[in-house]
Amino acid sequence: MKVLHFGAGNIGRGFIGLILYKSGYEVVFADVVEDLVKRLNEEKGYSVHILGTEVSTEDVENVRGVMLNSDECIDEVETSDLITTAVGVNHLGGVAKILAEGIRRMMTKGRCSPLNIMACENALYATDTLKGMVMELLNEGEKEYAEKFIGFANVAVDRIAPNFRTSDMGPLDAVVEKFFEWDIERGNLKTDLSIDGAAIVDRLSPYLERKLFLLNGAHAVTAYMGYLKGHKTIDEAISDKEILSVVKKAQEEMAYGLAQRHDAFTLDELKEYSGRIIDRFRNRFLQDEVTRVGRDPMRKLSPNDRLITPLMQCVEIGELPEALIKGIAAALRFDYEGDGQAVEMQRIIRERGVAGAVEEICGIPKDSPITDKIVVEYNRLVK
Questions:
Q1: Which of 62, 115, 366, 382 is most buried as measured by Cβ atoms within 10 A of its Cβ?
Q2: pTM of the model
């Protein structure tokens, strides 16, 4: 069995690549960084350093790499049994072009064996997004072929991969936390999958939202509050009693909204899950920088992402999530000069004001009472 994985970063190598290698797949990475692809082909393997209460190491062997925008990459699509991505949802368009051409070649050569595709991104229903992009590039006959033989399965993935290195690590080595979650929606799979540690579920939406809100949303609030208070890492920030209180309260607010929407979890189960997340944030080995977790704030503040979606869910059921609003206000204060989106967001705030920025970035009307609450919290926060 062969998997083609798009994106050879820490998540690609340390999470997806490791799990699929352990599940018996030959792993091929596609990436846009030429030096990285070259090194993969030279080294043919790497180590993954797993940070729990202790540090352990697992090796991944017999890997290779191809340039993402190459004819060779299209050939790999054509002959793969599984395709996964971890490129960031904003870069799925480039992947879609390669997939469309690969599907076209599969059809031309008469391939009748199924292919499953999963976008392992920090976004809701990222595989649906990718499928839509691919289908736009196919003609009617090619679409019929894709619907018959290509399975586009949504997933929820969860594993922290910090930018943490020591002098004895190899150049391709990756670092991840011990905990991971990989939930795969059964309905759109074209074949059965057996992936070590992954769960095949009938209905993915509760798992996606639980992870995106209670992990990614809480992670973002921790990072933005920590940045404002001068903390460098997530474990340092969550040790701040004020920040811990805001993050836990935001999780409670989001959990209440989730429990009203889904019957897959009880409120007590969501609270227990939230507590495990906080324990993960305390992992001192991760040394996860708040500027890394807070990067791309405009994406994280967009209408369908980890902060605004749970906010609006709470509002819809008549709740005012004050801690979550404080976290959103802190995100708007994120002015890290090393992040392009942070710089752009601050420009928008200067030109349009906070209310105008909330309208443009978050999709909430500037004259909304919710925007008023965000502006009040923004003005209370000082760096």
A1: 115
A2: 0.77
